[in-house]
Inverse folding.
């Protein structure tokens, strides 16, 4: 093989390498040009694109359903196989009927929620929103702050809640309990104690009041051994005819 042949082969290989490198570069550029809102492909299915603002709006949808005063509207934002761990009930709610039963009672005071802080994570056809929110109850003016987490799933048509956890702030609850215990103790301390009863002095029998202990024992023995006199029953008067 002469030098010219070797040089020709090297040139061909170099051109091929440059062509492959240019092709990969073009592929990367095309990928980077792809719109963020465009759906992405995975080996098995399509991932629905969603933004942080759109996930945040899912809470607004749930909150607006609360404002309607109709529990069924709130339940409609949950997937059928979703789980609700409610704020004011120990019972875990699985079915739509169980969730509606909870919201019937929760909505009696006209609650309206507001986000205090949140953290959002987005996956393939899933989203996660967690943080702290505060409810204001329109009928009483009371406020309740709690921790929350929502997980959402794209079902092919809509984003629905697959799990919802809500709980009151633990430190605030502990402080409230401690304050109640302290108030109860203070109230108990303010009640005056009843005066102690004076001891009752034994009453001496007149017959043994001035006797010595030995004489008292003899008198007690004599009383115990004295025969009981029979009680005479008066004869019945003859009946008048």
């Amino acid at each position: 093989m002469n030098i010219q042949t070797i040089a020709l082969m090297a040139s061909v290989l170099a051109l091929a390498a440059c062509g492959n490198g240019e092709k990969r570069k073009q592929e990367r550029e095309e990928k980077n040009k792809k719109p963020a809102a465009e759906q992405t492909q995975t080996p098995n299915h399509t991932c629905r694109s969603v933004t942080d603002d759109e996930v945040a709006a899912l809470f607004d949808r749930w909150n607006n359903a609360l404002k309607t005063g109709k529990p069924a509207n709130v339940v409609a934002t949950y997937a059928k196989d979703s789980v609700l761990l409610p704020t004011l009930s120990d019972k875990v709610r699985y079915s739509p009927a169980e969730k509606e039963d909870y919201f019937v009672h929760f909505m009696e005071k006209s609650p309206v929620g507001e986000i205090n802080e949140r953290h959002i994570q987005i996956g393939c056809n899933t989203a996660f929103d967690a943080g702290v929110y505060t409810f204001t109850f329109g009928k009483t003016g009371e406020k309740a702050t709690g921790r929350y987490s929502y997980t959402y799933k794209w079902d092919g048509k809509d984003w629905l809640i697959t799990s919802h956890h809500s709980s009151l702030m633990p430190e605030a609850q502990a402080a409230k309990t401690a304050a109640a215990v302290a108030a109860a103790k203070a109230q108990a301390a303010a009640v005056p104690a009843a005066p102690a009863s004076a001891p009752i002095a034994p009453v001496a029998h007149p017959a043994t009041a001035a006797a010595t202990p030995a004489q008292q024992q003899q008198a007690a023995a004599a009383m115990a051994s004295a025969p009981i006199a029979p009680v005479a029953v008066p004869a019945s008067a003859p009946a008048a005819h």
Q: What stands out?
A: The mean pLDDT is 80. Residues 17 and 23 are 10 Å apart (CA to CA).
